[in-house]
Design a protein that fits this description.
The complex is a heterodimer of chains A (414) and B (247). Chain A is mainly beta and 414 residues long. Chain A has helices at 4-13, 144-152, 190-195, and strands at 2-3, 23-39, 57-73, 77-87, 93-104, 112-121, 155-164, 173-183, 210-211, 230-231, 242-251, 255-263, 271-272, 275-276, 279-291, 295-309, 315-332, 335-348, 359-371, 376-388, 400-413. Residues 7-20 of chain A have low confidence and may be disordered. Chain B has one helix and 17 strands. The radius of gyration of chain B is 21 Å and the shape is globular. With 247 residues, chain B is mainly beta. The longest helix of chain B has 12 residues, at 35-46. Classes of the chains: A mainly beta (414), B mainly beta (247). Strand 1 (2-3) of chain A pairs antiparallel with strand 4 (86-92) of chain B, so a sheet runs across the interface.
C-alpha cells in the first residue's frame, strides 16, 4: 500500500497523471514470404482449375503483406483499415480488404454490451483467420471454407451486436447475437460455382476481379455467352440489402461455438456488363475447444446454395455446396504442429449445357511452425487435395486430380 | 480480563459463524507478576487511547490457510476511527489485473498502473462506482469518485478475460491475508466490531462471512469459513497467439 505522499511522488516522477488520452493510432501487420513447390494445374487465381494459389512447379513469392491501421478514441469508437498486398509476378494484388468504424460500449451492470461496425468488414465466421490483416493463425493456406470467405464474402454495411458477459452475469459463458445488413455482394457465388473449392492465403481486395475458368457454356450461342470473362464479387446490382445473422457462445478458457446464416438476398435475373446477380446463402457452424496439454481442436462446417438466372428467370446455375474441416493443433514451447482434414462438394442441380459444376473432394494439411523469435515464425506445410470435378474437361484437364503443395515460409508479425 | 462475548449476527451477517476467539495476555503479563506492575498495566489497558491488537487468521472450511482474503473490521458502538490515507495500487500486468483483489477505504482514490506495453480500457460496471477510461502503456492514473462502500467489479473492454475487484469499505481497518492466512490491526478504540471476511469467490451471501466481537484487549480470531470457495478465474486469453486482431 502507498500513502498519498508516495503516490504524488510516483506520479510526478512518471510525468504526471494520465489525463484524457484523446486518440491513439496503432499499426500492425504481417509479411509472409514463401517458397512453394506444387504439383497442380494453373491456379484458380488466373482462371485455371488448380486449387492452390500458385501454378505448377516452384515459385518464391510474397504470400501476404498485410497492414492494419487502427485509430482509437477514448469513447469506445475506433476506425480500422486493413490493406493487403500479394506479389507473385502473375496475379499481384494490392488494396483494401476491410475499412470500418467500430463502436464498443461499456457493459452494463448485468454484463450486457452493445457493439456496432459500419463500413467494409468480414463477418466473424472464420476460426482460422484471426491474426493481423486476417492472416491464418496456424497454417499458411486457409481451409477451402475460409479461402472462399476471403475471396467472395465481405460485408459493406452495418452490423449490430449484443453480448452478455458471463463474468458479470454469474454464468460461465459469454453469449452474443450479431445481425448485419449489407450491400455489394451480388455476384458472390460465381467463383465458387465455377472454380470450386480452393485453398490459399489470398484474399480478394476490394474491387478486385477474378478470371473464371473456361466454360463451354460461355461460347457464343450458349447460355452463358453474356457472362464477362472476370467475375467481380463486390458489385451492387439489385439495390437490395443482404443480411447475416450469428450467435456465439464462448466459455472462458474452454472454447467457443458459433452458428450463423448468410443471405445476400440477391434478385436473380439481373445482368449488368456481363455480371449476374447470384442468390447466395449458407448456414455455418464452427467450434473451437481447448484440450489439455496445449491441444486445440477446431472445426467448421458450411452448407448452402447459389442460384443464377437468366434475364427471363430461368435457372442457369443452380448449385448446392458444402465444406467442412477439422483441425488439431498442438504447441510445445516454440514448436507448433497442426493437422487439418477437409471434405467439400458442389452439387450442380441445373440442366445448363456446358456448365457442369459438380465437385467432390478431400484435403489434408500438415503444418509445422517454429517460432524463431517473438515476431518471426518459420513454417513448413504440406497440402494435399484430391478432387473430382467434371468441369475440368473444359480446360483439357482430367476429371479426377490429386494436387500437392509444399510450402516453406517466413512470417514476420509486427 | 474480560472474556469476549459472542453476539447475535446482524445485518445479513453469516449466522452460523462460530469463529474461535482467543484473548491474549498482553505484554507477557503473567499471574505471578508483582501486584504493582499488574495494577499499572491494568490501568494502562483501561485507558481508551491504548491500542489493542486484532489478529485474524482465515482458514477454509477444510482448515487450509487462505491467502489474499479481504478482512475488515467495522465499529458498531460509534467509535471514531480516523480515515486512512492509504492509496492502493491496481496494476495491469501481463494482460491481467494485479492484484486480482484489492481493498480500500471508500472515499480514497485508487491508483491504476498499466505496466503492459499495450493500452487497456478499464471499466467498472457497479452503479455507485461506475467508471471507464483508457490507460496507455506505462501510464498511471489516479481514479476518484470511489465514495460508496461496496464491491467494484472491473474488466477491460479490449481483453474480456481480464477481471479484478476492489472492495470499498467504510473503515480504515482493512487488509488482505498474507501467505499464512493472517492479518492484524492495531485498533485505537475498543468496543464492539463486526469482523468480515470477503472474497469474490466465497460462496456465501454477498461473498462474505462475518462475526461481531467485543474488542477490549488483544484477541486472536481463527475465522474458519463455513462456505467453500470457487476457483479464482485465471486471467488468460483463450488464445496464446500474440498477433491476434482484437477487432
Amino acid at each position: 500500500m502507498l500513502n498519498k505522499g508516495t503516490v504524488l511522488a510516483v506520479l510526478i516522477s512518471a510525468g504526471g497523471v494520465a489525463q484524457v488520452s484523446a486518440l491513439e493510432s496503432k499499426v500492425n501487420g504481417i509479411i509472409d514470404y514463401r517458397f512453394a513447390h506444387s504439383d497442380t494445374s494453373n491456379s484458380y487465381r488466373q482462371g485455371g482449375v488448380g486449387k492452390f494459389g500458385t501454378d505448377n512447379g516452384g515459385q518464391a513469392y510474397v504470400g501476404q503483406a498485410g497492414l492494419q491501421w487502427i485509430l482509437e478514441w477514448d469513447s469506445g469508437l475506433s476506425f480500422h483499415s486493413v490493406a493487403n498486398g500479394y506479389l507473385d509476378g502473375e496475379d499481384n494484388g494490392l488494396g483494401i480488404t476491410e475499412t470500418f468504424f467500430k463502436y464498443r460500449g461499456i457493459p452494463s451492470e448485468s454484463g450486457n454490451r452493445l457493439q456496432s461496425r459500419v463500413g467494409l468488414f468480414y463477418p466473424a465466421i472464420s476460426l482460422e483467420n484471426k491474426a493481423f490483416a486476417w492472416a491464418s493463425k496456424n497454417t499458411l493456406n486457409s481451409s477451402t471454407l475460409n479461402t472462399w470467405i476471403g475471396e467472395e464474402i465481405r460485408l459493406l454495411g452495418v452490423e449490430l451486436g449484443w453480448t452478455r458477459l458471463g463474468k458479470l452475469n454469474d454464468s460461465n459463458y459469454d453469449l452474443s447475437f450479431t445481425a448485419s445488413g449489407f450491400f455489394n455482394n451480388d455476384p458472390t457465388g460465381a467463383l465458387l460455382a465455377w472454380h470450386g473449392w480452393t485453398s490459399s492465403s489470398r484474399q480478394t481486395v476490394w474491387g478486385e476481379k477474378r478470371k473464371i475458368p473456361p466454360l463451354e457454356a460461355r461460347k457464343p450461342g450458349y447460355k452463358l455467352a453474356p457472362q464477362a470473362a472476370e467475375s467481380d464479387p463486390f458489385l451492387e446490382l439489385d439495390d437490395r440489402p443482404g443480411y447475416h445473422l450469428q450467435t456465439q457462445v464462448r466459455w472462458a478458457r474452454k472454447g467457443e461455438v458459433n452458428l450463423g446464416y448468410y443471405d445476400n438476398n440477391a434478385q436473380t435475373n439481373i445482368v449488368v456488363n456481363g455480371q449476374y446477380t447470384w442468390r447466395t446463402r449458407f448456414y455455418y457452424a464452427g467450434a473451437r475447444w481447448l484440450l489439455p496439454n496445449k491441444l486445440e481442436l477446431s472445426a467448421q462446417y458450411m452448407t448452402g446454395d447459389t442460384l443464377m438466372n437468366d434475364v427471363y428467370g430461368n435457372a442457369v446455375v443452380d448449385n448446392d455446396y458444402s465444406s467442412a474441416y477439422i483441425m488439431l493443433s498442438k504447441r510445445w514451447n516454440k514448436h507448433r504442429l497442426t493437422g487439418r482434414l477437409e471434405e467439400f462438394s458442389v452439387t450442380d442441380k441445373d440442366q445448363t449445357v456446358g456448365d457442369n459444376n459438380d465437385e467432390y473432394g478431400k484435403a489434408a494439411t500438415l503444418n509445422y511452425t517454429y517460432r524463431y523469435s517473438k515476431p518471426v515464425f518459420l513454417s513448413v506445410e504440406h497440402n494435399w487435395i484430391n478432387s473430382d470435378r467434371p468441369g475440368r474437361v473444359y480446360s483439357g484437364q482430367p476429371v479426377s486430380r490429386e494436387e500437392r503443395q509444399l510450402l516453406f515460409a517466413v512470417r514476420y508479425f509486427f | 480480563m474480560n472474556i469476549p462475548t459472542f453476539t447475535e449476527a446482524i445485518d445479513g451477517v453469516c449466522c452460523g459463524c462460530d469463529w474461535e476467539i482467543v484473548t491474549l495476555n498482553r505484554l507477557g503479563l503473567v499471574p505471578e507478576a508483582g501486584k504493582n506492575t499488574a495494577l499499572v498495566l491494568g490501568l494502562l489497558m483501561s485507558l481508551p487511547a491504548m491500542a489493542v491488537e486484532l489478529s485474524v487468521n482465515v482458514k477454509s472450511a477444510s482448515g487450509a490457510v487462505l491467502e489474499g482474503m479481504v478482512v475488515y473490521a467495522e465499529p458498531l458502538d460509534g467509535q471514531q476511527l480516523p480515515a486512512t490515507d492509504k492509496v492502493i495500487s491496481v496494476g495491469q500486468k501481463g494482460k491481467s489485473f494485479t492484484p486480482y483483489v484489492s481493498v480500500s477505504q471508500a472515499g480514497n482514490n485508487v491508483l491504476f498502473d498499466n505496466q503492459d506495453n499495450i493500452t487497456h480500457h478499464i471499466y467498472s460496471v457497479d452503479g455507485d462506482s461506475r467508471f471507464s477510461f483508457k490507460i496507455k502503456a506505462g501510464e498511471k492514473r489516479l481514479q476518484d469518485g470511489l465514495n460508496s462502500a461496496g464491491e467494484v467489479a472491473m474488466g477491460c473492454n479490449i481483453h474480456d478475460w481480464m477481471s479484478g475487484y476492489i472492495l470499498l469499505v467504510d473503515t480504515p481497518l482493512f487488509a488482505k491475508t498474507a501467505a499464512q492466512g493472517n492479518v492484524s490491526f492495531d485498533v485505537s478504540e475498543t468496543g464492539r466490531y463486526k469482523v468480515t471476511v470477503w472474497h469474490p469467490q466465497l460462496r456465501a451471501e454477498n461473498n462474505r462471512e462475518a462475526q461481531v466481537i467485543d474488542l477490549n484487549e488483544d484477541i486472536q480470531i481463527t475465522a474458519q469459513l463455513i462456505n467453500g470457495m470457487e476457483a479464482v478465474p485465471s486471467q488468460e486469453s483463450d488464445d496464446d497467439f500474440d498477433f491476434i486482431s482484437d477487432y
